[in-house]
Amino acid sequence: MSPFLLTRTLPEDTTDAALRADVLHGLAVPRGAGPARPGETAKPKTLPPKWFYDAHGSELFEKITELPEYYPTRAEREILIARAAEIAAATGARTLVELGSGSSEKTRHLLDELTGLHTYVPVDVSESALTQAGQALIAERPNLNVHALIADFTGGLALPGTPGPRLVAFLGGTIGNLLPAERTAFLASVRTLLSPGDAFLLGTDLVKDESVLVAAYDDAAGVTAEFNKNVLTVVNRELGADFDPDAFDHVAVWDAEKEWIEMRLRSRTAQTVKIPALDLAVDFADGEELRTEVSAKFRKDGVRAELAAAGLDLTHWWTDEEGRFALSLSVV
Ligand code: AVJ
Description:
- It is a single chain.
- Helices cover 34% and strands 24% of the residues.
- By secondary structure, the protein is an alpha/beta fold.
- The chain has 2 domains: 17-25 and 42-66 and 208-294, no CATH class; 69-205 and 297-330, Rossmann fold.
- It has an 8-stranded mixed β-sheet with strand order 1-5-4-3-6-7-14-13, sandwiched between helices. A 4-stranded mixed β-sheet has the order 2-12-9-8.
- Strand 8 (248-255) and strand 9 form a beta hairpin.
- It is globular.
- Bound molecules: N,N,N-trimethyl-histidine.
- N,N,N-trimethyl-histidine (AVJ) binds at residues 64, 72, 172-174, 176-177, 217, 224, 293, 295.
- N,N,N-trimethyl-histidine (AVJ) binds next to strand 12.
């Protein structure tokens, strides 16, 4: 069997510190010595979407990708199947780096066509997903090296010294889970990973009918609702909090101005949640919402502009037949 390496680029307790910081920043009302001012409770509560993905959350996400309403995974797979040979020809990649690789399921289509590939570097925060996917891949592909990285792709990445050309892929539309300023910083950091001859492959979900978008994030079977609420069980387990997931409703709304879907958890009553690890009590008003994810949808001109701002040229643009999803390639 070919080699499988797993590298944790961050110490284990970094995850814990990052979760604490995110929960504190997103849920705590800033309070001075005096009583809470009326305006303070108006600060919208937020949690970043990366905390969905513990082992259970990663499983739920895999279930989402199979839902009839959740089209992005199927649309992107359709493009990959149709275009993998062109991507291989345009890049000649010997190293494939995949940011936020998850189960690496769609990547197989790319791996099939990248005939000169030396090493696959999946990067993800989920150790369970990396190990499962990596072990399965090396068992199937005797000539492939897999060097998995447990890392947060939004931080500066230290990549293993593998042969070029390097193809960095960021699929699934996950770039849409970053806020605009985070996207700018992320694309700039991707650019620093690329040398002449390297390339960047980006998956973006596209703006479409509101009813189609909302259904994709509020499925009839309730899997997305369970996925959304899973972030509360993660905070319960990691920080000893006492969130009752049943005390919140799943909400998915389209923001037509920002062109993104927001997932929120809406408090069903006035309640106070204790978070002992942070010595924190968080008040929720009846109906108060906690934003857990934005999922931005794109247009070609916007993608081109954001890539250009990072010094990347849009060299190829492919969509599925129905024009729901796009893959962009930038060859440096
Ligand atoms: C594939 C991770 C980008 O925003 O569509 C799915 C995550 N959230 N359903 C997306 C997700 C709710 C997803 N990403």
